[in-house]
Each structure stands twice: as C-alpha cells, then as structure tokens.
Amino acid sequence: MAILVALSFFFLLVSENVPASARVSNVESYYAITMIQMTVSFFLNVLVLRFHHMTEEKVPEWVKKYILNYGARFLRMTFRASNNERLQSAKRRKFLLTRKKGLGTIVEQKKKQRVPIQSLADDKVIAKVFETQIKMAARDEEWKKAAEVLNNYSLILHVLAVLLTFGVVFFDALFLSNKL
Predict the structure, then answer these.
(1) Nearest Cα residue to 127 out of 100, 94, 150, 162
(2) Residue 107 contacts residue 123 (beta carbons within 8 Å)
(3) Which domain holds residue 43?
(4) pTM of this prediction?
(5) Do 29 and 167 touch, CB atoms closer than 8 A?
C-alpha cells in the first residue's frame, strides 16, 4: 500500500513540474500504468493470501474445477509432495488413524466390560475429533494448492504486464525521437 501512495505522490510531483501540453508525456503514462499494475498486483496478492489461509471453509466446486483442474493443467502443474512432506503427512495421518483405531478397540473392550454409556460416548467424541482433524488437513492442503496456482497466474500476469508496459513506452519513445 505504501508503494501506491509513493507512486501517487511522485505522479503528482511530476505532473506539477511538467509543462502543460496536448500530449501526455512518456513519464506520466509510464507512472500511471505502473500505479495500475501495482494496484492489480496488490489485490491479486491479497486474493492468493486469502486462499492460502482459508482453512475453515470447504473448497467450493468451482475452485476445484477451474483452478485446481483446468488452471493447474494449463500451467502444467502437478502437485507432488516432496519426500519430506510426504513422510510428515504420512506420519501424521498414521498417528491420527492409529489413535482412532486404538479408540475403536478401547470402545469395543469397554462394551464387553459393560462400562457406563457416558464413557463410550466420550470415546466416540474423541474419535470424531480425530476424523475432523484428518479432513481439515486435507482441506487445508487443497486451499494451499489453489493458492499456489493463483500465485503462478498472478506472477505470469505481472511479468507480462511489465514487459508490455516497457515495450509500449520504450517503442513510443523511439518513434517520437525518430519523428523529431
């Protein structure tokens, strides 16, 4: 946000010191386009961060279809975890599933021993918590993948916009110098 304020301030200074003419100077057009690019880049970064940190909500179908499916395929992105990430994910999933299975066997043992129903209900609640944690970890992983795809698109868009801006301003200056 500070960059936008600085660019606006600089644009005001330049516009006050440049003599009035019928044609917009290259410097003015360059800084105006740069301000627009920075604004778009800022909002795209906010969107990427929103996707990256969105864990409470379920991933909508349109995100799965258009971003994770078509968008990732267009960029030729594959989501393979590194060996370290796979090991950590597998260990965590194994730990949670082992605890859940352990709770299931404990529940069965308590049923055979005729333990009070409240104790069984507590064990089932704990098992559901573990199930919820496994689902939330998978959901969090999906949101982070969507954020990665959006981040790559915003990077490509930004680079193309910068190159296009530079090309337009540079070639415009070349053609102006040839006319003079």
Answers:
(1) 100
(2) yes
(3) 1-15+29-111+139-178
(4) 0.62
(5) no
Domain count, the chain: 1
Residue 87 domain flag? yes
- Extract the tokens encoding 54: 């969105």
Distance from C-alpha of 11 to C-alpha of 69, rounded to nearest angstrom: 42
Cα 57 to chain centroid distance, Å, stands at: 15
pLDDT per residue over 62-112, tens digit each?
988 898 889 888 988 887 655 555 566 666 666 666 665 555 565 565 556
Give whole-number Cα distances, 129 to 21, 71, 124, 125, in Å: 70, 33, 9, 6
Smallest CA-to-CA distance from 157 within 72, 62, 59, 45 is with 45
